[in-house]
Amino acid sequence: MGNLSNEFAACEEGDKQSPVNIKFSEVEEDQNVPEVQFQYEQATPSVINNGHSIQFNLPAEKKSNFITMDGAKYELNQFHFHTPSEHQLNGENLPMEMHLVHQSANDELAVITLMIEEGTENKELSSIWGELPTETMEKDIKMKESIELMKLIPESSSTFYYSGSLTTPPCSEGVKWIVFENPIEMSKEQIEEFKQIFPNNNRPIQSLNKREVIQNK
């Protein structure tokens, strides 16, 4: 990707790139990792097929979905999906991965990552899954259905933290990644519905380059 434009040089030259393989045996445990606090409310997003994922944008005029971490507030701008998962757990990909992308007032990014395994139907996501656009779009469209994102967050708070990058160009670094250890479930049918549009939209695993992955249980 780095040869597409000078703006995308980090994709090839950066040393803190994402995604990564999280090896449990090499993870450092630290109870002092900043705790993430969620403030998610029911919201009706807009949706766009941007050519590399299905992205759901949160209303700009109503900033009622955010997280706080280490004293900073990060507002939820959008969430999207990858198949198979971009991150690996002990060298294994899961069927899908969900990224909830947050931005602070200082333009710092924090991504909450939910790994997705095949299981029972995800009723919360089913409300918006029926409106997945199959063709690339120029502009997002408001959805008819709402979603309560807090119901997606795993009850177990075990998470992995590391400093990485965006996984699509320009691959900007300095992104705070918070990866939940426990996956959420989607049915085989829900996963296949997404794969019909994007059979494979994950970025290959990047080298950790001496970065630490820290776990907070």
TrEMBL record:
Gene3D superfamilies, sorted: Alpha carbonic anhydrase (3.10.200.10)
Q: What class of enzyme is it?
A: lyase
| SUPFAM superfamilies to which the protein is assigned, alphabetical | Carbonic anhydrase
The answer to whether UniProt assigns keyword Chaperone to this entry is no
Q: Where is the Alpha-carbonic anhydrase domain?
A: 1-217
Q: Which UniProt keywords apply?
A: Lyase, Metal-binding, Zinc
Catalytic reaction equation(s): hydrogencarbonate + H(+) = CO2 + H2O
EC number assigned by the record: 4.2.1.1
> What family does the database annotate?
Belongs to the alpha-carbonic anhydrase family.
Listed PANTHER family: CARBONIC ANHYDRASE
What is the protein name for this chain? carbonic anhydrase
